[in-house]
C-alpha cells in the first residue's frame, strides 16, 4: 500500500477548479457498452442483408446505421416521440456514445421515410430475425425454465 494518507487521498479527489472542456459528455453512458455488444454479436450484417431492398440507392445512411440508431433510441427510452431524433441529431455526446458521426445521425424525417418503406415482407423478416436472436440466446444460456410473458403499459 502507498504512503498516502486518507486525508491526502480525499484532497486529491476534490474539485479544485472548473474549466471548459472539448470532451463530449452524455448522461446515456450505458448505450456505449450496449452498442459494443450489438457489434460483438454481429447483428448489423443481418440487418444489411435482410433489409437491403429498402435502400434504393447509395445516397443516405447505411441500413446498419439506421437500425443502430433506432435500437439505441428504443433502449434509451428517454422519449417515445420520433421528433426526438431531431434533438439527438444535434447532441454530439449522444452521437459519440453510440459510436456514430454527426453526419450519420438521423432526423425524424429520415426515420419516418425509413418506416414508410417497410412492407409486410419486412415485418416478417424482422420477426424472423428476432426469433433467431431469441433462439441463439437460449442456446447460449441453456436455461432450465423459460417463462414467456407480455409486458403491458397501461395508459394513464
Task: Describe it.
With 156 residues, the chain is mostly helical. Helices cover 52% and strands 0% of the residues. The protein has 8 helices and no strands. Helix 3 (44-50) crosses helix 4 (63-76). The model has no long low-confidence stretch (mean pLDDT 84).
Protein topology:
Blueprint: H1 6-12, H2 31-40, H3 44-50, H4 63-76, H5 84-89, H6 92-97, H7 108-116, H8 120-141
| Overall pLDDT confidence | 84
Cα gyration radius (Å):
21 Å
- Sequence of secondary-structure elements: HHHHHHHH
Which structural class do the helices and strands define? mainly alpha
Uncertain parts: none
Count of discrete structural domains: 1
Beginning-to-end CA distance, first to last residue: 56 Å
Q: How many E strands? A: 0
Q: Give the overall shape, derived from the CA principal axes.
A: globular
Task: List the total number of helices.
Answer: 8
- Which percent bin holds the helix content? 40-55%
β content, as a range?
Answer: under 5%
Main pleated sheet: none
Please describe the structure with a list of short key phrases separated by commas or semicolons.
single chain; 8 helices; 52% helix; mainly alpha; globular
In summary, what is this structure?
This protein has 156 residues and is mainly α. It has helices at 6-12, 31-40, 44-50, 63-76, 84-89, 92-97, 108-116, 120-141.
